[in-house]
Records
---
Amino acid sequence: MHMVNDPPHIGESPANRFYRTIWRWHFYAGLFVIPFMLVLATTGIIYLFKPQLDAVMYHRQMFVQPSGGIAAYTQQLEAAQRVYPDAAISKFTPSVAANRSGEVELVTSDNQTLTVFVNPYTTQVLGERNEDNNLQANARRLHSELMIGPVGDYLIELAACWGLVLLGTGLYLWIPRNGFSLWGTLLPRLGSQSQRVFWRDLHTVPGFYSMLLIGFLILTGLPWTGFLGETFAQVWNRFPAQMWDDFPQSTVLTGALNRNGIQSVPWAVEQFPMPQSDLLDEHPYQPLMDKTPASKAVEGNTPVTPINLDFVIALAQSQGAPPGFNVSWPDGEKGVYTISAFPDDPTQEVTMHIDQYSGKVLADVRWRDYGLVPKAVELGIAVHMGKYFGLENQLLMLAACLAVILLCVSGGVMWWKRRPVRRIGAPTIPSYAPQWKLPIGIIAVLGVVFPLVGFSLVAVLLLDYLVLSRIPVLQRIFN
């Protein structure tokens, strides 16, 4: 990810013109990308260590002393409801270990999302975590949308895609033009007396070694973006029709459960249609249900008693859902309970939709049902988030984030030191460019794979060629 490199020898050969064009692309890409990449890297580091940060910041709420038997899950839920009587329950996560509290996610009357921690042995409410306003939540929102909603999401996506352009052009600029030399190519000359050589090597050499890791971070983050990610999911997150032929469908997709940046279901099932509960269906599990909720009368039929949280969790455990699974609440009379688990190992992911009256499993989607591309995406996300192989995974992604910060800082310093007074100091555009077949080909490929990059690249090139290079005042500023 090189901001600038040593200029080529002046000349108008096709090779030199192409080199100068790539160098100019790299320069402008760097000016645009650096602020976003610094935000992504710093917030990524914070969210990467969310498990450790949560354990420190909310230790009193998250950890309990085991004592006797665990109370019924409905009792834990009722304890949270007594403290927040006007809030709407949205999700429940049973304790993942004997020394951990249960977690009730709810939405308050003023539209705040809270996680309420309940001691599973005593049903004591231990405290709350505001999911809209804490260190990790703010880092997540900055990381995904710059805290400004969809516009920020698109800007992050555009910057990430331009980051790939920066890597590709940087690799081209890294290739030695005047013969291979170990120092300055594979080893940095950090002891050089020349500040320019020092910063250049501090930029180019780490950039070469970290290129694949940074590229991996960018690519595995793109499935969560608003434009490319949504389009990608619609194309690849497909399931055989017979998986939902036997239940009534709603127009709502499972991905609707991922609200406000909080992940409740895996990426691979976001396009799976939500089923609907059937008030008129037979209810074979009625003897197991809690009789305390109000029954729902159906014209011409006996009253229907909904299943309760204890039943849903017992069902999830009997179906092999791994510890850490959550239960999302039905939305309305036709809504369903959704059991979802996305543990560190994505091959153990589970998404089940449960009829809220009969307790029937309407859909059960697991790793075996994913296509090849969703499997690759889920594995990539697990590594991207530092979950897949423990602390080593976190440290590897930390190294990638630190490399991004180093490249941004060193590239910015290089530009600042060499910029002319009152000018941006971009590499000069070639005096004429008859050899445009390869650049146009690159733009076409980028436009197909990354539409936002393709459109923006065409806009930048037209602006550069038709405006910046032709108006004398702008020429002086931008060159």
Note: Confidence is low (pLDDT under 50) at residues 3-11, 284-294.
---
Amino acid sequence: MAQSQKTETPSKPEPAPLALALGDPAGIGAEVALKALAALARQPQGAPAVVLVGCGRWLEESHRRLRQAGCTDLADPRMFELEDLPLEAPLQPGQVGALAGAASFAWLTRATELVLEGRCRALVTAPIAKASWQAAGHPYPGQTERLAELCGVEQASMLFTALPPQGTWRFNTLLATTHIPMAAVPAALNPALVERQLDRLLDFCRRFSSKPRLVVAGLNPHAGEAGHLGREESDWLEPCLEEWRRRHPEVRLEGPLPPDSCWLEAAAAWRDGSAAADGYLALYHDQGLIPVKLLAFDAAVNTTLGLPFLRTSPDHGTAFAIAGQGRARADSMAAAIRTAAELGLPLRPA
């Protein structure tokens, strides 16, 4: 009898790595990146492949300084692929200015190019200092706006996502407006913007639920109190949401809700492992970021939508006051890397 031959199942190709821009070299970017990669390496699935984008000499020096400060739980930077863009001169932790701004701007730009070129599948960014970018002659409100420019999109969106300590519900909050003064918010808001942001929030939440429930916060106290505390809700926001509901009958859309109670259900779900709405739309920066940071400061991930790829970032700043001391927590950076690895998809062919 002829012996049957075993057929080997072809193995799946390894996914492309993530591009990790190391942020402001005077801040905690190197520290949280190396700590996060070390923590992820201990998990069953291991750390994803990454390309570190920064200055190799500075990265090695940061690693040495952190070990001298007693921080031993660090990944060895030599174990990762490096896109080396050297600093123009040595830099000390906490040294804010044009040198750091020029470096972090260049590192973000190159990391984005790696994704657009297809060498990487998603982007993770460490924090930058807007003041240093300004000093270097780069007048952008933040990394989100620079990414939109590099990708040729009119406007990218900021969404913050976090997994609670227990349960399977995911906390998602998208900001309708981002880095603009409070006085400019009412003029920036309009039906077209809200509809576009709801579309992006819906697309993101459909990754986790086939029929998402979305909540929209009002702009004014008590969501305008029927026009007595502001007319934006009654004049255009309520009709806008009603039209969006008509076009998306499969989605349960609530709002505009009073901003001071809009996230109460999310707070309860975060504590007890239950569930709340799949997505929240905040109408301005701090309206959304206050509940996110109160509930999930060390777990939230800044996720940019509207680009041709996924970008994630930790939900904290450069922490200049503790840079180089080994005291920074890396939970949010680990969550950002893990989220990019789980949700980041290769660029679709043009």
Note: The chain has two domains: 16-153+308-350, 157-305.
---
Amino acid sequence: MWPKGARLLVAVSGGADSVAMLYALHEWARRHPLCLTVAHLHHGIRGRAATADCDSARQHAESLGLPFIEGKADVPALAKRTGRSIEMAAREARYDFFRRTAAESGAYAVAVAHTADDVAETFLLRLLRGAGLQGLGGILPVVDLAGLRVVRPLLEVTRVEVEAFLRAHAILWREDATNRDLSILRNRVRHELLPLLEREYQPAIRRTLARTARVLREEEAVLAPMVKRAASRAKLADGALSVRVLLKLKDALRHRVLLSWLRERGLPEARLDSSLLVRVEFLLSSPTSALTLGKWIVRVEGENLLCVPKQVQKASPPPRPEPLPVPARVEWQGLLVSAEPWQGIVRPARGRVGALPSEATIRPLKRGEKLSVRSVWPGARIAPIGAKGSMKLQDLFVDEKAPRAERAKIPIITCGKTVVWIPGYRVARDWAVAGEKSRSVHLSVTKTAP
């Protein structure tokens, strides 16, 4: 878990598991080269009880002559701001604190006190939620969480053994009242489901589930090279995944590639379940959708599956429509748009929607008709030449694989709320020029000189 002489950050909440881990590691450090620093995060939950937890952790560190680092976070405010549960927000705040503290103190890793009971609880929670081998493999002894190395020395130890150790050495610990709150699913598994299984079905259920999780982790390790090769084929230079490659993979292999990819993006392990995979897979066949996952948005652009940071700042308002008289040349969003009297037909060169430079001809304007150039708006439709009916511009952009980030920058030539022409695409049917020698209006869009 760590090399000789390593500096280890020991996460101590004040509860039985973390206190037992601290004293066990201290005993280990008396016989092996190891430097320990105690770290505790005050979550801003539970008022005086939380302050007492912090004081208890500090006293344990002082009694062992170890450095103590305290952090503070307003978890309720974080939960409200991000829309997450208190438990998820607390976990995020805790690991952010460990990550900063480990970097500042030069720690090789942070030690956390998950036990065999935690493994059993996590196994059942993920089984109830729906998970594959990787999820049921449970809590890993060593893991990298967005650059933070996390080690779990007590995974083979049960909570009964932890408390027996503390009593044998007359070591006091704190009890967190929220651990008895049965409105929290994990607590119901801990205090109701596991005792029931233990009493009625398998007295050694905790060790049995922990052993099963370990076997599944070992089997997953055998599959890991296959997943790594498939992920390498699917990955693109910018960290996106190729939709085409993903769809060619067998379901089980595609699921593992997606899980590995989401984990690399920093999504918390608790979010990586079968229901999430179903929603991500839906995106592959429905690219107009997007999936918000905490600080991330997963979406498809063209042939790429992207996971990008969620933009919390307000989006810029769309540019206002710009009148386009005939004749005229106007500037719009760094583009030069012109309209002038013409004779005959100039057919748009077939490229991709929004491709520049682009030109086309439309019929002359009738009395009262006025052209303008603007960006796309919700519900906008076009009835193009050569097609029956009309289609939403949103659907057209998806079909033509126009990058989502560029769609608002594509100029739309309109008459009122009617779409007349889109550069790189066809003219609307009602605006077709009558014949090769008929009067018309020539439209063109080019980029302005830098």
Note: The first strand starts at residue 6 and ends at 11.
---
Amino acid sequence: MNPEVLRVRTERLDYDGPLLDWAEPEHPLAFLRGGEGIVGFGERATFRHEGENRIAELARWWRELCDAAEVHDEVMLPGTGLTAFGSFAFSDTSASASVLTIPSVIVGRRGDVTWITRFDGGFPVEPSTPWPTRSASLVPGAMTPERYEAAVLAARQHIRAGELGKVVLARDLVADIGWVADKRGWLARLAAAYPDTFTFAHSGLMGSSPETLVRVSGGDVSARVLAGTARRWPDDATDVHAASTLATSAKDRGEHDHAVRSVLDSLAPHATDVTTSDPYPLRLPNLWHLASDVRGTLVPGRTALELVGALHPTAAVAGTPTDVALDLIAELEPFDRGRYAGPVGWVDAAGDGEWAIALRCALIDDDGHITAWAGAGIVADSEPAKELAETELKFRPIVEAFGQAG
């Protein structure tokens, strides 16, 4: 079957207001950080796939679509021209589909350049201020706090028996808010409160993730690995001490080393001259993370989607060894993660793209049912109460964003 031929046109746009004002209110598409990024309106083409080969199949569809497209791009920046939003299921066995979406219109910004991309002419779109949103009180879902602590104990036994080095266990919060006509207000709150993270929305999944799975731009590859967490404190002295303690903690450094090694091993066939920074405390508004930055040069012919497939899932969201950790997650977590902790981002026709790991996020379905997730890395000396407290810290962005009205 011949692929569909898309006609794509990107032009500069004289606009310096909030990009979210251009997103579709009920079904927003967005991938933003620090006021830059892209938002989408409408749905020109969508491809969904499930199962073990989902990312490879989506990449194949994307290549065929790109090869057939007719593109006129006056801007020529990453994210201009033919570009798609994507979010992929965490697990090979998930009932949730992995999705690539080409909207009817994309508005983007990089530096002082703003552009608009229309697919097959698009349709008239104007920016609009987000409507006030209702508040939602999130409560424990299938993985209650008590059940979570029991799962941590069970996981710790497997680790101490030598079956694996680390496993990431998540729990869920839920709420029912009913149909919502404009969801952009929640995104605006997340973007304002966490400007240094990736604020994203795709197919009902929205959040603000601090973790870069992979970025590909003009042959350069980068990633930011996060593993190891500490709370922030209101007074400077205690806060600095918390960061220093995190950076020197044997437990957190061990967890972090697992995550970095998994990224380096997965990246090796696809990049050269790979370097990684020493771990450092990354300050976010609500917590400290132990972070390492990875950089390299893309092997010719590789694309962002191929690297997404190679890197997911990292030890930061699954564990190590990966196959053993995934089996234990399926045994101990009483829910399907769906697209939580899966890749979320965008890809363009040049193979460039930015992909985060879908963390600090919630899924809002069309009936207004909300499910949020947060997890913690479990190692041999993990303490259930402390791991539960870590998930509370990680829930904070979503709980605060949804807990405000107006």
Note: The chain has eight helices and 23 strands.
